[in-house]
Amino acid sequence: MLSSKFNLFWIALLITVVSCRKEAFDAYYGRPEWLASPIYQQLDSMGDFKKYLSCIELSGYKNTLGTAGSWTVFAPTDQAFDQFMKENGISDVSKIDAKLAEKIVRSSMIYDGERLEKLNDYFSAKGWQQGFAFRRRSVYYDFVEKEDLGNGKIRRFVSANRGPNVAYAATDNNNKHISYFFDAYMNQRGLGAIDYQSFYPNSSYTGLNVGSAEIDPARSNISAENGYIHVVNKVLIAEKSIDQYLRDNTSYSTFKSILDFFASYTYNAEITRKNEVLTGEKDSVFVKGYAGIGLALNNENYAKEDPNDAQTNNFSITVPTNEAVSNYAKRVLLKYYPQGTTLKDLFYTNPAVLTEFVNSHLYNTQVWPSQFSQAQNFVGELLKVTKANIKETKLLSNGAFYGIDACQQANVFHSVYGNVLLDPKYSFMRRALERMSMNLTLKIPTIRYMLILVSDQKLYEMGFDYDAYNTSDPIRFNGGNGTPEMREVLMAHIIPLGNDPLPDLTGKGILESYAGEYVKFNQMKMSSSGTLDGPTETQQIRIDSISIGNNLSGPLNGVAVYLNGGLTSSNTNIGFYLKNIGADQTSSPFNSFYKYLIASTLYSATDGVVKGIELGLNYTLLIPNNEAIANAVANGDLPTATAPTAQADIDKVTRFIQYHIARNSFAIDGKKTGFFQSLCKNVDGDAQSIQVAVNQVNKLQVMDNLNRTVEADVVQSNQLGQRVLIHSLKGYLKHGL
């Protein structure tokens, strides 16, 4: 009996202790009385979310929103559902199937529970940045889509989740984003109602909007155990991507067909297996991406340079209507092609044209309607179209969409380079310019050029060829590597104009090329140092036509000149060149100077090279005429003998010749003046200079170290040698050493 009482005592004591410990455990670890209910339970208690709750249950998200987690939910009221169902011909909530219910619920959810005032902050890899965000990643994403290829064939694919030419990330679902429009963000950037209502014309701007919906300020920031609830007056459905919208809109099918040329489909075994597990379908699944253009129009992730950079920015696109593309193609893109040529033909022969065309309509940033005219496209050009051209405006899941009734007039097509790019007869010249990156400056609208075009046929006749399979140098010249020779040719065909008027090629003149060499024109014919080295019949090359642009087509940054051949540089060294132009004849104004030159220590009789004149650099040779040389001898500035033996006389001849050779080149054309170093140096090694004091179209005066002015004989000047310009002087220059 005593033992039983003893046992009962210990049992009672144990129950008391355990009870006390449970109360302490519950007090520490139990659910606090102040903690709000989860999202699902709160919506259920509010009473006017029955239809939304029905979708939550049907979609399988009751447990997700009814237990722990962290979500922001934009919850549509029953009234919002009534409007949605009316707009979409749904008679009753029971008619909403599981697929649509899931889309509705997931479109209304974004990751992480946030108060409204926090949504404008950008959660970057470096931490929170206040006031930079207007988008958040939603829970919704598309998985495998299908497209009909015809003949009963269906292709299954998922969209790229990175930019062009970037590998697909299998762990990224390419979630769609929700955009919101709060006063704090909009006002700071000069945005407002016109921007919002351009995207959502049937909605009112309150400064507290998400998508097309208004957030109820009295029923927002509702704290829940697993996030925040913000009540909205419309059902939010994830928008289509730019790629999806174009697929479903025939008004832009021509532009879309161009984009299709750049689409790529890559088989993905992992997605194929996942799709088979989920659906039972054994068909291959591909990743649809884009290559060769600036943006992947199905990528929902923006640049992904930061994991969350899509919170701060968006893509944009201006898409011309079918009629606009057709007209522009006929007027510009296919201007030089035979009738019947299609855009598909153009893509396979010269895809660069369509790359430039597409990129001119892409924007790597959010283009707001009120700031449309200030937007710069993917290649850094301002819009040529205006707000009057906008026929449709939408904010899609990954970009702002503007349907326009005109094409963006890309600078490249309205530059001198456009004539090369667009005309298939000049494809070799185009490839060469691109390979050497010389095309980049030619398409800048503010830098003016005269571009002299040489056809493929003429380049072949000059000894050039193009072999794409030769990886060391696809440009061939007489069987060997040809890039150096081609670069020299191209530089002679690019004439910087600066602010000068377009040259009148029906007249006569001289022009400085891109590399500093000069070319001449004379009554619709052109010549260079190389052509003048050749037979008389090919020394001047005929100009076939001239293209000056207007607002519809052609170059607006200069003039394109179509030449019936190529301008080349002379391979004849200066000594031999002087002989070729008759300097060895007594009748030549260069004769006396030539005699001193070829007898000097500066001259190499074997190859005609003058010491100090370096290959590849430009020089000006100022040759005193015969009378001037006689005066120099009479004044003791030159010895009587052209080949003196005394060292002092040898040095006198050397310095005399050197002082009449200037580094860099200047023509008698009214342009360059100022100081030019000569080859002559003092005992300290300092180069002595000459000064071009007067330079007019028909007059040149040069000043020496003694401030003496010498005038040029214009008729005998502007002679073109191997990177040397030769002028005849009526006097001689004194270095004063």
Automatic annotation (TrEMBL):
The FAS1 domain, residue ranges: 36-236, 239-420, 577-733
Gene3D superfamilies the UniProt entry points to: FAS1 domain
Protein name from the UniProt record: Fasciclin domain-containing protein
Organism: Sphingobacterium siyangense
